[in-house]
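Researcher: Next entry: DUF2339 domain-containing protein (Geomobilimonas luticola).
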Amino acid sequence: MNPVSIIIGALIGGFLGKWGGMVGGAVIGYLLGELAGMGERLAELENDVVRLRKLVKPGADEFSRPAAPQSAHPSSSGSAPETPVATLQVATSGESPSPARETAPSAVTVSHREETAQTDFVFQRVEEPVPPRCEPHPSNPVSDLLGRLFSGENLLVKVGVVILFFGVSFLVKYAAQHGMFPLELRLASAALGGCVLVATGWHLRNRRAAYAQVIQGGGVGILYLTTFAAMRLYHLVPTMAGFFFLVTICALAAMLAVMQDSSPLAVLGTAGGFLAPELASVGSDSPTMLFSYYLVLNAGIIGIARYRAWRSLNLLGFVFTFIVSAAWGGRYYRPEYFAAVEPFLILFFLVYTGVAILFARRQQPALKGYLDGTLVFGTPIVAFALQAGLVNNFEFGLAWSSFVLGLFYLGLALVLFRLAPHTMRPFCDAFLAFGIVFATLAIPLAFDGRWTAAAWGVEGAALVWAGLRQERLMARGFGYLLLIGSGVAFLADAGSPTGSWPVLNGFYTGCLMLSGASLFSAYQLYRQNHRLDSWEAGVGTLLFAWGMVWWFGSGLHEIDRHLPADVRFGCFLTFIALSCGSCQLIRPRLAWPLLDVPFLGLLPAMVVFAAVQLLTGVAHPAGEGGYFAWPLAFVVLYAILWNQEERYSLFGSFHAAALWLLAALGAWELHWQIGCRLPGMATWALTAWGVVPSLLALMVIRRGEAINWPVARHYGAYFGLGTGPLVLCAWLWVIGVNLTNGGNPWPLPYLPFLNPLDCATALVLFTLAAWYQKADTMYADLPHGALRTLFAATGFIWLNAILLRTIHHWGGIPFTTHALFHSMLVQAALSIFWSLLALVVMTMATRRTLRGLWGTGAGLLAAVVGKLFLVDLASSGTVERIVSFVVVGILLLVIDWFAPVPPRTGEGGGA
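Model: Predicted structure:
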């Protein structure tokens, strides 16, 4: 089917007759496209027949018979007598001959000894060279359609019939509107013209079959149009007589099509019949007449299907019948029409169910039981959708409809299985599936959505189990769909009221049934995976995930609904941890590897819960039940890690990640406890973020090898992957806090080095040194130079921070960037301090002949000199400026005396 022909026909028809013209034009476009395609296929078949005839009955010019032999005895020269040879040259088409064939063609020799002449005939097959094949040009659907329409034989008659059909319909309509000619005469003339066309086509059927069939189809369509107009539009023909004529015309079209084996004739005649009400501009709100008329047409279709397997005719009737029915229902249906419309919908459904079966039985022996998916699957879907609109006002109307439809399909599957169990097996499977679907669908239509979904889930699990035992893929597939669909249906009804009892309520019970059904099915698939395809193993994994989602989701929902807020979070985490632990307990008994998945998600879930606590405003990890949940979660985590020690190689990363999480939670909790229990001690609370990671890292560095499990067993992971990020975070904390915090030691007075901030900084630096010392023994490729520079820079920042905090507390200068930068006291103190520090560094470098270290001190002195002239010099007339210049000058003299440039020998001598 070419959609372009349908679109073009619909556009042309829309310009001519609005909605009705559009429908008619689309159908005519479809028919013309099909006829053009059939003409092409017929031309190809004719060419094949001509080619085969040439091969079987070659012309006289293709034979060459040599003269008779001169002697029957050997010649005097001793040569053998020549044998008469007849050569048959057969031209074949195919691929181009190779050069070898051009020089020495192969010969196929068949010897035939005649009894009288004793003559051998040699048939030589000569392959003619084939011209080179041209690359096909990309096809254009529009140009292909126009080429088929405006080329080939019977073009004029095709276009003429289409124009004539529309012309007659427009003539009838125009004449009726303007009172031209008596009405009876107009209708009789149109009917006579249709009869003439039918008779002419029948007379010419043996001369030009295609031409004759098009003429007959157009005549049948005109008879349909005229009869329907006389009966329904003008009421000139009684109802019974009109239907008698319609039945007669329908039978005539069917008979002509079957007798001439002409699918286009049947399609044209039937399409004319379906278009007759629309082309006559009849828009009735009374369904009986219209649907009775369409029932007659469908009777003709099913009669033809009894003798011919014409799929295009079946699809045409199906589309017209149900589209017109849906369009009429959308415009005119009212509840009082139910008794008149319902029987027709049932009959239409039965007609096309029967047409699909007849179509399969009329196939070639090799295709017996061929299933037309459009009719088999489309009929129940469309009919049930229309039925839903009809029974919308009846309580349980759609539920009963679904139940009856399910019983019908189950019974039909049983009948077909008994009559033709082999040839009709696809129909049996399809109808069995439909029966189960519609019978199952009756449950949600009659009962509460949650119980419906739960019943679906259990039914899906039963189908999977039965499908595995009976090795029926279709049953298993339907079970998979039910298991997933039951969850979707359950969610769709999640807002309905439920019971007030914890656990013992409809919502949670339904969730447990869905989860259990999915997990049961997944386990059954795992047990039978050696007999299944690989894709069904993926389905088993999907069902396991689906069941776990329902298990965890329903549990969290139940906790949120029934438990108080002050313990809700702890119960969330406890439920997750105990569920993962339970999976690990039953995993060895079931030998089901998928039960390891919940444990693998436990640590990520703990991280997510910590983030949720932080983002939702929970003050500290122990809040809202975290005081009992977090210890339990870590116990379960480490118990599973110990139990599965030999199974997974990635457990080292799990141990390291657990150490990170423990450090973060411990620092957070200690920070909150100090800040909450000891108000005003913000600096003490701040030190928790550096102290806790440092202590955990020191424990691993100093005592980790003495702890047999888990640290010593995974010491590489604990030290490298575990303590590395901890000491990095502690170092970042040192840098940040020394650059931004004033270090208020309340209630103690401030003393340099002897305050909580400097003590915590010293602990972090000690931890960094210990980590570096241990790493130097474990890793051979450490960047020693970069790490030493990092330590020196960190110490420099810390010492400057101590100086600034001392000036802040003792000099009363606010610890802000603006205040400190514009304080001459701070600038003078920094200049003197940097100079003293340069003196110490350069003196040490001179004594140890370290030119590189001496260069560092010199660089620091250069910075001091630059600062003196760029910053300190701006504060003219201050004591601080004088002191800074004098002291720095003296120090420069001292440095020059005590710390000259070291010689080039020793470390850094070449620097």
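Model: Note for the record: The mean pLDDT is 74.
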